[in-house]
Design a protein that fits this description.
The chain is mainly alpha-helical. Helix content is 81%, strand content 4%. The two termini are 34 Å apart.
Amino acid sequence: MTLASIFFGFGANHAKNLRWQVVYSLNFFICAIAAALYLAMIFKQGFTYIDGRPAYLTRYLTWTFSTPLTIILLSYLGRTSILIAASMVGADVYMIVAGFVATISTKPISNIWYIISCGAYLGLAYLLLRRYRQQAERQYPRSKKVFYRLLTVHLGIWTAYPIVWILASTGFNVIDSTTGSACYTILDIAAKVGFGFLALNSLKQLEQAEG
């Protein structure tokens, strides 16, 4: 995450125009926030036991800041209206907060909050697949494949998070805490570093389509 932050920060400082600078800068802060999370985890900050299961509460703090930036990045690429962008950010933050409450709650109350969080995610997915995509394709009629790929990768990665949550000790306890943490780490790298490079490639394709 730290190396990716340095790369994106360097790119923002040497961007060829404002559009590239914005995309590089957003990716820089997304990765920098994630890097801070893993530093805190090394120091065991935000780590606790809830109902006998380990939990890193710092994850939710960083997700509250980093995931809205990902939504803003998508909105910037698609030239989304403020209303739709704000609605997506609102659904995203609601999802994270509900997930946090689920994590700090004991069962079966945690399961109720998990369902609420998943409901917010479904609302976000609807906004992305319908409203966001419609506006993006209207802005870039020759770049429909670009946004199809962006949304496929984005939703594919984000959908894996609640699956890990329900399989880990927070849910059915099918996988142990070490495996769960490893899964979250892999997903974080994909959602932040991987998606950051995909966003850069998408911007390049959008500019080429614009002529």
